[in-house]
Amino acid sequence: MSKPSGPELLLQKQYRPPVDKVVIEVPAGLIDEGETPEQCAVRELREETGYVGVAEETSPVMYNDPGFCNTNLNMVHVRVDMTLPENQNPKPQLEDNEFIECFSIPLTTLYEELKRLEVEGYAIDARVGTLAEGIEVGKKLGLGLGI
């Protein structure tokens, strides 16, 4: 999310029965037949958060745990322009069985905020945690991430 104070990552809290916890995760979903990863990402963003975004970049296919299963994903970078009228008061289009709370965290403090959320009892999705770790390593190496 582009905000005057700097870029933020749009996250959500959603209860996940397999871990019996509320998980901090990014909007995500399954690709419908005939849909591209980019189309899916923009659709899921709108359904789960109400925000309208534009897909800017897509990762290669990544495998979650190839030693155990073939579950895979593409991470799609979606930019949400907070100056657009449709992003001023977003209304999610949740299914009856979905209970999702959306919030955002500045990328500059993502690592610290996730640590705090874990202490509070939330589970951290590996995709979100890995992004935070990467940003933190980049800071420590002085890579000038521009965030």
Automatic annotation (TrEMBL):
PROSITE patterns, A to Z: NUDIX, NUDIX_BOX
Keywords tagged on the record: Hydrolase
Matches recorded under SUPFAM superfamilies: Nudix
Domain Nudix hydrolase positions: 1-128
Gene Ontology CC annotation, any one: cytosol
GO biological process: nucleoside phosphate metabolic process; ribose phosphate metabolic process
GO MF, any single term: ADP-ribose diphosphatase activity
Pfam families hit by this protein: NUDIX
Family listed: Belongs to the Nudix hydrolase family.
Name of this protein: Nudix hydrolase domain-containing protein
Origin species: Blastomyces percursus
